[in-house]
Amino acid sequence: RATKGGEEVRGYAPSMGQIFMRRFQMVTQFRQSLEDGQVSVHYQPKISLPNRQVAGVEALVRWVHPEFGRLGPDEFVPAIEAAGLIGVLTEFVLEESLKRVRKWLDEGLRISAAVNISVRNLADEEFPAKVAAALERFDVPPSLVTFELTESGVMSDPQKALPILRELSALGVELAVDDFGTGYSSLAYLRQLPVDQVKIDKSFVLGMGTDLGDLAVVRSIVELGHSLGLTVVAEGVEEDVARDQLEAMGCDVAQGYLISRPLPEDRLEAWLQARTA
Ligand code: C2E
Ligand code: CA
Ligand code: CA
Ligand code: CA
C-alpha cells in the first residue's frame, strides 16, 4: 500500500522531467498518431426522458499510444491545446462524428453527435467556416451536430468567444454549455449566450442521491435551464434512482454509465441495434 512520501510512491510517481518528456512526445507525435490510427473516437449514447429513446451521442476522443498505453483525454487534450494543435484534434473528431451521423442517416436513423470544443477553437476566426465546409462535405444537417463548450471555457474570454458562438449558432448547429454549475456564470450571463443546451456537471448528478445540496443544485439548474428555454442534459447518470429523479424533475436528456459507457464504433452499432430491435 502506498504511503505519503514513502518509497513505494516515489517508485511510481513520474518525475517532473518524465512528465515534461511525456508531454513533449505527445505533442510532437500527435499528427502522426492520427495518421497511424492510434487516435479514435468513442461515442456515449444519450437518451431522452421520459421516453428513453436515443437522443444522440457524445464523441469522446481516445489515444492508444505505443509506449504510454491507453490515454484518456484528460491526459493529452491539455497538452494538445497548449501546443496549438486543438484545431487538428477538433477537425478529426468532427469528421469522424460526421461520418457516423451520415451513415446513420443512410440507414434511416436521425441521431445527433456532440463534439467537445475548446475555447481555443473559438480563437480561430475560421472555425465556423471550417464547420460549415465539413457539414457540406458530409452532407449532414447542422441540427444534428452539437458543440459542447465548458462553462469555464466560455467565461474565460466571453468577448472573444461570443462572436464565434453567434456565427456557429447562425449555421444552425446546437451549442451546449458543459460542466454547468462548476463555474461562476450568472443567470444573466447565460441569457446573453446563443446556447441551446446546458449540461449539468456530473459531480452534482453523482452526488444527488446522498447530498441534499447536490440535489438542490440539480433541481435549480433544471428549473433555470427551462426558464431560459434550454434543453437540460444530465451527465454522470449511474443509477436508476438518479435517472428516475431526473425524469421526475423534468430533465430532458440523460447520459451516463447506467445507459452506456462510451463505446468504440462497432460496439456502439451493436448497442444501437439491441436497443432499436
Ligand atoms: P466531458 O465532456 O465532461 O465528458 C464526460 C466525461 O465523463 C467523459 O470522460 C465520460 O467518459 C465520463 N462519463 C460519462 N458517463 C459517466 C458516468 O456515468 N460516471 C462517471 N463517473 N463518468 C462518466 P472522458 O471521456 O475521460 O473525457 C474527459 C474530458 O475530456 C471530457 O469531459 C471533455 O472535456 C474532454 N474531451 C473528451 N473528448 C474531447 C475532444 O474530442 N475534444 C476536446 N476538446 N475535449 C475532449
Ligand atoms: Ca462534454
Ligand atoms: Ca441555436
Ligand atoms: Ca461534463
Automatic annotation (TrEMBL):
- Annotated EAL domain ranges read 23-276
Protein name (record): Diguanylate cyclase (GGDEF) domain-containing protein
Recorded source organism is Amycolatopsis xylanica
Q: Which residues of the full protein are shown?
A: 603 to 879 of 894
